[in-house]
Amino acid sequence: MDSKQAYQEKMDAQLREWEAKVEELRAKIDQAKAELKIEYREQIDALRGKVDSAQGKLEELRHSGEEAWAELKPGLERAWDDIKTSVENAVAKFS
Fold it and tell me: What DSSP designation does 65 have?
């Protein structure tokens, strides 16, 4: 995916998927024992912060020019890799 538009669409779809997973994990917290709820909630809140940060980076990409987006892409890719790992770890832990 070389075009800015195609890249944004790919990232939008991935972000929606991660947001859905975070909400699934929040629902599982409600079923956890009281002592685990605090730990789980802290981890979910941290994950939510990463997703929010990625959303901000995506907004920055949306408002960038065609030439500038190539410079933003590496930072966005690193953020995406970090979120992907965090979401996968959280899903594995809470499943």
Answer: -
Q: What is the 8-class DSSP label of residue 64?
A: S
Q: Which residues, 6+ apart, have CB-to-CB distance to 14 below 8 Å?
A: 80
Q: What digits encode the pLDDT tens for the residues 50-65?
A: 888 888 888 888 888 8
Which structural domain, as residue segments, surrounds residue 66? Answer: 4-94
What is the DSSP secondary-structure string of 6-28?
Answer: HHHHHHHHHHHHHHHHHHHHHHH
- pLDDT over threshold 60, residue 37: yes
Q: Enter the DSSP assignment of 32.
A: S
d(CA 24, CA 50): 16
Q: What count of other Cβ atoms lies within 10 Å of the Cβ of residue 10?
A: 12
94 Cβ contact partners less than 8 Å away, ≥ 6 residues apart: 25, 28, 29, 40
pLDDT score at 82: 87
Q: How many domains are contained in the chain?
A: 1
pTM: 0.67
